[in-house]
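Render this sequence as a predicted structure.
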Amino acid sequence: MDSQEDRAQFHDMSQSTQEDWQIIMRHNIPFSQDGGRRILEHLKLLDGDFGGFAVDRLTHSLQTATRAHRDGRDEDYVVMALLHDIGDTLGAANHPDIAAAILKPFVSEKLLWIVQNHGIFQGQNFFHHLGLDRDMREQFRGHEWFADTEEFIDKYDCPSFDPEYDTLPLSFFEPMVMKLFRSPLNSIYKRATEAVA
């Protein structure tokens, strides 16, 4: 437990001082750099949650990442594939938004767009069974990353419900996750964390 001396002294943020924020940032840097560990722990919540599918949600995520890895994708792409459905437990109505919010500071705009829109693109395969417009993705036709998102669905996400697939374990992907989440590419706090580190 932190000692009182190792904590900020303000009770109202408008009264905070530079000294307070130096203390906070000393705590924040290692906490932030260990974000990958917390992501992995949250991902494990998908284990055993089948939701009616042939494999549980963790296995689906691992299969999606395994396929991307075996296809030679970069590590950041593989991690995006691994985490694309991490929001299933928190946001059943908007799981792509959850995944996108988690990944936003750490991936390129292209990968962010893919994860943000994968739910609509996957709808091509099942929306009509639910009385929805299976061509909903067509609203994005002409977007520079339309084909990339379509490819993500067709090659990695869509076929990853196979109980017989030779799926890599989560431990294989842990170093990639830890590396990606160690330092953000885009964050309003990036400069501040670099200055303190």
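Summary. The mean pLDDT is 91. The radius of gyration is 19 Å.
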